[in-house]
Amino acid sequence: MTTQTHIATSTTRATAAALAVTFSSVRLRPLIAVGFASAVLLSVTLCGVIVPADVHLVVLLVAVPALTAAADNTRTTVSMTVLACLGVVAVDVDDGLTSSLILPIDFLGLLIVCVLVLVFRRLRDGDHRTLHAVRSVSETAQRALLPPLPCQVAGLDIATAYRSAAAHAHIGGDVYAAERVDGTVRMLIGDVQGNGLAAVDDAAAVIGAFREAAHRDVRLEHVALSLDASVRRRVEQAGQRDSNASERFITALVLEIPDDLYVVHVISCGHPDLMRSHGTKVDLLEVPQPAPPLGLGGDQTAYQINTFGFEPQDTLLLHTDGLLETRDQAGVFYPALDRFALLAKDEPRSLIGHLMSDLTVHAGGEVQDDVAIVAVRRRAAPSMGSAAEDSHHASPAP
Predict the structure, then answer these.
(1) CA distances from 161 to 40, 92, 174, 372 (A)
(2) What pTM value is reported for the model?
(3) pLDDT tens-digit profile of 30-83?
(4) Residues whose CB falls within 8 Å of the CB of residue 156, separated by 6 or more in sequence, listed in order
(5) Within 51-101, where are the H helices?
(6) DSSP assigned state of 327
């Protein structure tokens, strides 16, 4: 099987699985529950009438209300319990137990199971409401911490994808941001040491520092210096409460994309190199001398600006190490550059969607680390410098 076919198959499987889960939770689960309960009711009642009286199968009818626990309707449980009671009457009358204590005991067993099902369903519904509220708070926090980047800005098409390693969480230790500043677009992608919810505090701080420094500092290396100083201040403050605070740091790429030049300026602070597609060629934009990660005290000379070509129709892929370090069951790392080469012609939104789906399949359905992906494509030359927000018309580079 070719790699292209593998990606298509992976995406199809992921989509089919999502549709199957949705359909199952909405349609099939209640229907299956009622179907099993009805089958048990009919089979036990019929067998109870046929077998000799000394074989008392009617006790099995307590499974009827129990099986309706998967249904979300209280009326369903009550209705099936009433039908089960009628089955008890039919079997016990046939067995000649009308005046025996067995008949009310069978009734009582059904009623107890019915009440327990209703009580536990109410508790479950309360837990579901709580989980829904927590997810709503998490989504709100994500929108505040990592708002979606603009789809189009200053001749660039941008798309993002994010997955947290923490179960049921939408935020974690990976960050990205973009700011429009005086004829350029400045971008940040970073990875806080650690993952999941424990890194959210540092992630929020570095994004806030970037948004301020991107507009305040004229030179890109000064932006990196400001970010490092901000992280070091937080580490020093956290050191009063946490003895392990000195081990906290953030790897990052700080980028600047001018409107009037077909280049991208990059400062690497110990972060994985970004990828670039140019025509049919895909390569790593390797930074020869990356600066230390933010928080480890780099000086101004450490933050070297590296300039790479970024032509119309080129695509940049920014990512965190979760994309590179995800392994399959055999321990093989995800071949991110090869996958990007096959998908580079896709639009940014489609590109990162396919990458994230394929990454999930490669990991066996569960990615163990936070993963952030940002795809940036420069549109064709006539569209350059046409950002409406600053009414700036840039002349394309020769």
Answers:
(1) 47, 62, 11, 6
(2) 0.67
(3) 788 788 888 888 888 888 888 787 777 778 888 888 888 777 778 888 888 888
(4) 185, 257, 376, 377, 378, 379
(5) 63-67, 74-94
(6) B
